[in-house]
Amino acid sequence: MANKFLHAIYDDDDKLMDAVKYLKKEGVYIEDVFTPFPVHGLDHILKLEPTRLAITAFIYGCVGLAFGILMINYIMIVDWPQNIGGKPSFSLIENIPAFVPVIFELTVFFTAHLMVITFYLRSRLWPFKKAENPIPETTDDKFLIQIPISNNEKDLKAKINKTDIFKIDIVENKNE
Amino acid sequence: MFKLTKKIKIFSFSLIIIGLLGIAFGFYSAPSNIEESKEMVASHDHDYEHSSDHDKSSQYYNKYESKEGGGHMSHDEHVYHQLANRPWAALYVAAFFFFMISLGTLAFYAIQRASQSGWSPVLFRVMEGITAYLLPGGLILLLILLLSVFHLNHLFIWMDPEVVEYDKIIKAKSGYLEPYFFLIRAVIYLSGWYLYRYLSRKFSLLQDKSNDNNYHIKNFKLAAGFLVFFLVTESMMSWDWIMSIDPHWFSTLFGWYVFASMAVSGITTIALISIYLKSNGYLPNVNDNHLHDLGKFMFGFSVFWTYLWFSQFMLIWYSNIPEEVVYFISRIEDYTIPFWGMVVINFILPFLLLVSSSLKRVNWILVMAGIVILVGHYMDVFNMIMPSAVGDQWFIGIPEISSIMFFAGLFIYIVFSSLEKAPLEVKGDPFNEESKKFIYPF
Fold first, then answer.
1. H runs (alpha helix) in B284-343
2. Would A43 be classed as within a structural domain?
């Protein structure tokens, strides 16, 4: 495991994209890229697996839908049937139009909240978590490529200097 | 350049001819007097209980008559009018449906122009081709409306002075629902829409040859102006041409509801024609990314349509005010399958087919969802017009299907012969390069 890293810092997402494409072509191993916002197309170049968050969203929506139907059925039909607007039919299916807004909102509620929680868990984010990005500027206006160094520092620097670089930093791994 | 193939010509002409024959048969087989209609009804339902059902449901339509005019129209006479209306209504539904596709496309095209979208210029010529149907389709509609005004058909009962006389509610609306004023309004809408279509097409062709962005800017301003005109006239058109068939009933979001149907059918047709042209080797610049965007619009407008349909339905269902709720009672009782089936094929099927990002990039899924959406929105127009025009005497038979075939043939022929007239690629549009390079971050 390398304990020395090269941080190539860029000040524009287009420059970063060009640099990543160039470095990939040169066969440089890129460990990670930190950006202040999602850069479209970067995941394709880095060959990251597509996110499965959308699939979980659909599942959470189905859970919300089922929960909504069961809840409204228990509240309005089973436990305490009420005559609202002269529609006392005491049957879920005959009253369903009135319940659709509630069921819809619960579907949205479940999808949204469970997706946020899933996203935080998947990104290993929780309260008081120490930031993982190497420099705070990557949450502001800088883009950073992290490359592990074994003993090819000179060669790497030469290649990176060919790209539209803003700054190069060499850092030791602090965890050791 | 696209060439109109013999295959398309033969296909569209045979659709037109078979459709015409069927339409003629529909008019021929409609009853010409009360006796004939009685015979037809008797031969249709032998069992007595069924026909007493008819009596019950036609009370919804007859209600005002029995209240105001002491029931001056008998049940048999009423059924006769419904049966005589059927070929007209079938023709009108299909005419409106195909006209609506080209009008929806025109609105979508104007939105692309006004928002200066970067993704869509590669599809401009397809949209312009579809809107070529606006003028012929509009003229046919105008002709049907003209025939209504001159009492050759009875689609709009408020045009009958005898009905208006006995009917307090229609009488109160007679300032607006006045046959000649109605025709003048129709001419204003159609000429306004056609003027935009004519000018924008002209500027679009001129932009191809020009060196600056002058015509692009003109098109941008024109589109913005048109959208203002369209939103007002589209709403009024939906009251005039559809809602007034039920002159007692009204819904304040009806214009939007019709617009949602219009937009989704238009966008679906753009997608289907683009896929067809692409599979024949045209439109090299249109790729999965553009079709993905069209798929998202199809999905989005299907959901939007459902939202408006449900908003209209739930409020009226819940409040249960007799004047309003007859509209849905007649549909639920006499049109159970088309009414609920339409919700399934306009919402649940497109939702499940198009919800996934990767499925939207599969062409045959888009085609399947597109066919489902077009069938569903034909059913939607059917449900808007038929219950008021023919009551429970509906059936999807020869008059309906041949009307669809006739207008489909006409639509295909006009759209494809218009696609032939200009290169399928726009050249001078400043967003053309962006559109070619467009990649959906998927």
1. 288-319, 322-334, 336-343
2. no
User: B357 at the A interface (CB within 8 A)?
Assistant: yes
Q: What is the mean pLDDT of chain A?
A: 88
Of residues B310, B320, B356, nearest to A100 (C-beta): B310
Same domain, A68 and A118: yes
Calculate mean pLDDT across residues A117-136: 88
Q: Mutating which of A17, A35, A40 best tests the B interface, going by the most B Cβ atoms within 10 A?
A: A40
pTM: 0.87
Total number of domains in chain A: 2
Chain B: closest CA distance from residue A138 (Å) = 21
Query: Please, how many CA atoms are within 13 Å of residue A15, restricted to the half-sphere of its CB?
Result: 19
User: Residues A31, A58: one domain?
Assistant: no
Confidence of residue B2 (pLDDT cuts 50, 70, 90): confident
Query: How far, in Å, are A130, B249, B318, B389, B416 from residue B322 at the CA level?
Result: 64, 10, 11, 20, 48
The phi and psi torsions of A167 (rounded to 5 degrees) equal -160, 145
Domain of B320, in residue numbers = 6-29+80-425
- How many Cβ atoms from other residues are within 10 Å of residue B355's Cβ? 15
Question: Tell me, what's the pLDDT at A155?
Answer: 85
Contacts of B439 in chain A (CB under 8 A): 40-41
Q: Does A93 touch chain B (CB under 8 A)?
A: no
Q: Give the tens place of pLDDT for each residue, B129-184.
A: 999 999 999 999 999 999 999 988 888 989 888 888 888 888 888 889 989 999 99
Same domain, yes or no, for A116 and A153? no
Identify the H or E element spanning B44.
helix B34-44
* Number of structural domains chain B divides into: 1
B314: chain A residues, CB-CB within 8 Å:
97-98, 100-101
In terms of domains, do A71 and A101 share one?
Answer: yes
Are A31 and A59 found together in one domain?
no
Residue A129 lies in a domain: no
- A97: contact with B, CB 8 A cutoff: yes
Q: What is the ipTM of this complex?
A: 0.81
Q: Does a structural domain hold residue A152?
A: yes
Chains A, B: CB contacts within 8 A come to 24
B320 phi-psi bin (left φ>0, alpha ψ -120 to 50, beta other): left
